[in-house]
Amino acid sequence: MSPQLYWPWSSAMSGETERAEVVRAARELAYDDYLSALLAPRAHQADLLTLAALFGELARIPLHVSDATLGEIRLQWWRDAFAAKAASGHPVADAALALEPRLPAPLSELMAPVIEAHAAELYAEPFPTQDAFDAYATAPVATSFALRAAILGRPHMASDPIAATAAATLGHVRTCARLPFLFAKGRYPIPAYRLDASSGTDAVDEPALRRAMTGLIADAATAWTALRPQLQRISPDLRRVVLPTALAGPYLRAIQKDGRDVLRDIADPSPLERSARLWLAARIGRF
């Protein structure tokens, strides 16, 4: 049975149809954030599901197009929708725009780094520097946490140092899980120096790529080991903002599983494990 949720927005489209489409998009495109939304206070669930659906819609574009131009067109549609601030007929875009009065800045501004991160995934070229890679890996989660904080009525918590570290850590873990999908399309959004390539992809070969992935995974695991004790001591309010970080551990275990090919195999914790880890973090602060 579908959860009974409180929805504070409406539109010209059939309300039930639009609500169902947003929930479907959140569940199918951003399952981790979908589960996190259902563990939030009831009054905030619908808005957090809208955010999950929005981030899921953007994240799927590079994974579903083979041509960079087509991907750029789809990403530009979202830029235009945010800038227009008018009903588009797209249930997720319209629901997201309905949240804008409660956000710290216009969606066109807030979502720009997220769109740029996904635009980078459309091309074969690696990032020129580690800083550029870090910004790419962190932007979607940092923006998500900022919007979660605003929806939860705690906008100042987006700038909390632990929230920033949690966003960077989860962002790098999620990137390690996402990269095999991009490698399969001939795209290498990782630091060029890790590939022994100063530019382009001519020097990219499988041994270099494997070494690069091993290093990125090790860095993400080190960051999680350092962060996890800090999360046990945070306030319930901050816990709600960074709740998706509870899945960094399960994803790392899946990524580092014996026998897994880091370049090709999907790292996908079971739905039961994800639900359990999020529930423990939400209810008793166990990350």
* CATH topology annotation: Farnesyl Diphosphate Synthase
Helical content stands at 55-70%
Structural class: mainly alpha
Which runs of at least 5 residues are low in confidence (pLDDT < 50)? 1-11
Number of helices: 13
Shape: globular
At CATH level 2, the architecture is Orthogonal Bundle
User: Number of folding domains?
Assistant: 1
CATH superfamily: Farnesyl Diphosphate Synthase
Biggest β-sheet: count, sense, barrel? none
Protein traits:
single chain; 287 residues; mainly alpha; Farnesyl Diphosphate Synthase; 13 helices; disordered N terminus
Description:
This protein is mostly helical. The chain has one domain (15-284): Farnesyl Diphosphate Synthase, CATH 1.10.600. The chain has helices spanning 15-29, 31-38, 42-64, 68-84, 91-98, 107-110, 112-120, 130-151, 161-183, 206-231, 236-241, 248-255, 271-284. It is built from 13 helices and no strands. The two termini are 28 Å apart. The longest helix is centred in the C-terminal third of the chain and has 26 residues, at 206-231.
Summarize the structure.
By secondary structure, the chain is an all-alpha fold. The chain has helices at 15-29, 31-38, 42-64, 68-84, 91-98, 107-110, 112-120, 130-151, 161-183, 206-231, 236-241, 248-255, 271-284. It contains 13 helices and no strands.
Task: Record the SSE blueprint.
Elements: H1 15-29, H2 31-38, H3 42-64, H4 68-84, H5 91-98, H6 107-110, H7 112-120, H8 130-151, H9 161-183, H10 206-231, H11 236-241, H12 248-255, H13 271-284
Helix pairs in contact: 1-2, 1-3, 2-3, 3-4, 3-5, 3-7, 3-8, 4-7, 7-8, 8-9, 9-10, 9-12, 10-12
